[in-house]
Design a protein that fits this description.
The complex is a heterotrimer. Helix content of chain B is about 65%, strand content about 0%. By secondary structure, chain B is mostly helical. In chain C, helix 1 packs antiparallel against helix 2 and helix 2 (about 30-50) runs antiparallel to helix 3. The radius of gyration of chain C is 17 Å and the shape is elongated. The N and C termini of chain C lie far apart (about 60 Å). Chain A: It is found in: Cell membrane.
Chain lengths: ~170, ~325, ~100
């Protein structure tokens, strides 16, 4: 009962703040609604017994990626967009958008049959803790992707260095 | 998965929450008094002396004064975010109180990921600062907010690295497990084997709470008052409540992760056995008070860092030191355990 | 018990919201934000399936997606800043240098 009530709160807030987030004119206000979406998504991960992922979601997404967005918006000094120029003009696109949402609603509500039960049961995760369970799988089966992830995160650092300190030939670009 | 509480357990939890929150607020109020007294003595003068014996009712006088001030909101400020920004800062700092163990078994929520929870709420508290600066719709506030946010974000990485070494040595993310692991370790507390990490943590803790020598965003001589410029009366007080609560959280974290929490090292009890009768929370409070005294002492002593010096210290000195500490801890763990 | 289809509904609708946001906005930053929403929707679907199939590997994949999304957003924002420096606008209608008419 409490579980379903919590889930309903999180789900409605996610969808509501998501819709509010994509329809605001001011990019900063839009980003604030998306921040609420991400925080409630973290809450939903808590209900799914994934506490490490919930906290990582808040630290990385809400606390780092969105702050990066915010700093770029402030750096570029984006003004609030004028009324009427925000969305693309055609009405067909809006009808297709609403039909798409209804389609996704229907597909999600279909009755999916679970035919596969994996080895990592809920009791195992609750006993060991989600961080330890993730760590067991991460460092045994997924070591190479982990190292590759390190390299993937290194590339933007180099990119920022190049962008800020430029190339020596073209001084003003 | 239905782990619901019955009525009495829920009521007891609410009671514990109110108790811890009230004690923290009383501590925060008297820290303002203690700070003025200690800094006064460091500067060869008395602190407040008028209100009450030795000035001890000064926090009450400040509190009454704040309530009497007029609440000014700039007309071009974006009102909803302007009003909510100090609440964000205070709320996300105060929520850390729920994961701190004051004594064996006395904790509001023994999370599996306690250390990461504190880091997550620190990341969210940055938003309060940025939004306070942005919603004030004034150039100095905006720049001050961005500066402060950049400072907090840079030092958060150093904080995370030092805490990662502690978690690696303890083998768990739970704060109570870290304290128990310290009690069972060789030195009794982690400040000695993790000395580099401890130094990094202390400096990063000063920068995270916007305290001297890193208090450029709120010094009166710089950028008017930074992101606090347009805030008056109680909202200003909320920001400062948030800052002092963050000081207590960082002090508690240092006491738990590096100084042994509520335990005393085994060899000290072997030498002085009467210390066994002092309850654990007294030791915890003593360690926290020691750290708060360090905060105030440093404020009375050191000059302020300039902003680019601040950022270069965070990125070029503390983060490499944090990595060195992490590598030493990894080698230690691999070779000796 | 919360049935699996509820989680999938939320995940698919959030993906739809991100997709719609991507299609109807003209500002480049809003496009990047919509991509973030879509990635999060996929993460939610992965974690929910990991919980109901009693397998933790989808949650490991979700962790990787969070990490890669951080890198992707960083690169996207770098390119965005460079584009803004060159063109002084962020409306996607104005990026029509390759148009032939």
């Amino acid at each position: 009962m409490v579980l379903q009530g919590l889930f309903l709160y999180f789900a409605l807030m996610i969808l509501g703040t998501g819709i509010l987030g994509i329809t605001q004119k001011n990019p900063v206000k839009s980003l604030l609604w998306i921040l609420l979406t991400f925080v409630h998504l973290g809450g939903l991960y808590l209900l799914l017994n994934a506490e490490f992922l919930a906290v990582v979601q808040i630290i990385v997404y809400a606390g780092a990626i969105l702050v990066m967005f915010l700093f770029v918006i402030f750096l570029l000094d984006l003004k609030e967009e004028e009324k009427g120029e925000v969305f693309l003009k055609s009405w067909q696109l809006r009808v297709w958008a609403i039909l798409l949402l209804v389609f996704f609603l229907v597909i999600g509500g279909l009755n999916y049959k679970i035919f596969y039960q994996g080895p990592y049961t809920i009791e195992f995760i609750e006993k060991e803790g989600h961080s330890k369970a993730l760590g067991l799988v991460l460092f045994s089966d997924y070591v190479y992707p982990l190292i590759l992830l390190g390299f993937i995160l290194l590339v933007p650092l180099i990119g920022i260095g190049i962008m800020l300190f430029g190339r020596k030939t073209n001084g003003s670009s | 998965m239905d782990r619901t509480l019955d009525f009495y357990q829920f009521g007891f939890l609410v009671l514990k929450t109110v108790f811890i929150f009230a004690i923290t607020l009383v501590h925060v109020a008297f820290t303002t008094y203690a700070e003025r007294k200690i800094i006064g003595r460091a500067q060869a003068r008395f602190g407040p002396k008028e209100v009450g014996p030795h000035g001890i009712l000064q926090p009450l006088a400040d509190f009454l004064k704040i309530f009497g001030k007029e609440d000014i909101i700039p007309q071009s400020a974006y009102q909803p975010v302007f009003k909510i920004a100090p609440i964000i800062v205070f709320a996300f700092t105060a929520v850390n109180l729920t994961v701190i163990p004051f004594e064996q078994g006395f904790i509001l929520a023994d999370l599996n990921v306690g250390v990461l929870f504190i880091l997550a709420s620190a990341s969210l508290a940055v938003y309060g600062i940025i939004l306070a600066g942005w919603s004030s719709n004034s150039r100095y506030s905006f720049l001050g907010g961005l500066r402060s946010a950049a400072q907090v974000l840079s030092y958060e990485i150093a904080l995370t690295l030092s805490l990662a070494s502690v978690v690696l040595m303890a083998g768990s993310l739970k704060l109570s497990d870290i304290v128990v692991a310290q009690h069972n370790s060789f030195f009794g507390f982690y400040a000695i084997p993790q000395i580099i990490g401890f130094v990094v943590f202390v400096i990063a803790a000063f920068a995270e709470t916007n305290r001297t020598p890193f208090d450029l965003p709120e010094a009166e001589t710089e950028l008017v008052a930074g992101y606090l410029t347009e805030y008056s009366a109680f909202r200003y007080a909320l920001f400062f409540l948030g800052e002092y609560t963050a000081m207590y959280i960082m002090a508690s974290l240092a006491a738990l992760c590096y100084l042994g929490g509520w335990t005393v090292p085994k060899y000290v009890i072997a030498i002085l056995p009467f210390l066994k009768w002092i309850p654990g929370w007294v030791w915890f409070l003593l360690k926290v008070y020691l750290f708060i005294f360090l905060y105030i002492w440093v404020r009375a002593t050191f000059p302020r860092y300039r902003f680019d010096q601040l950022l270069s210290l965070g990125w070029k000195v503390l983060i490499p030191l944090g990595f060195v500490n992490l590598f030493i801890t990894i080698l230690f763990k691999k070779l000796f355990a | 018990m919360v049935p699996l289809s509820w989680y999938l509904i939320v995940s698919f609708c959030l993906f739809g919201i991100g997709l719609v946001g991507f299609l109807i906005r003209r500002n480049l930053i809003m496009l990047l934000l919509s991509i973030e929403i879509m990635l999060n929707a996929v993460n939610l679907s992965l974690v929910a399936l990991g919980h109901y199939l009693q397998d933790i590997r989808p949650q490991v994949i979700a962790l990787f997606i969070i990490g890669c999304a951080a890198g992707a957003v960083a690169v996207g924002l770098i390119l965005l800043v460079i584009t803004y420096r060159n063109k002084a606008t962020l409306k996607v209608d104005e990026f029509n240098l390759l148009r032939e008419d």
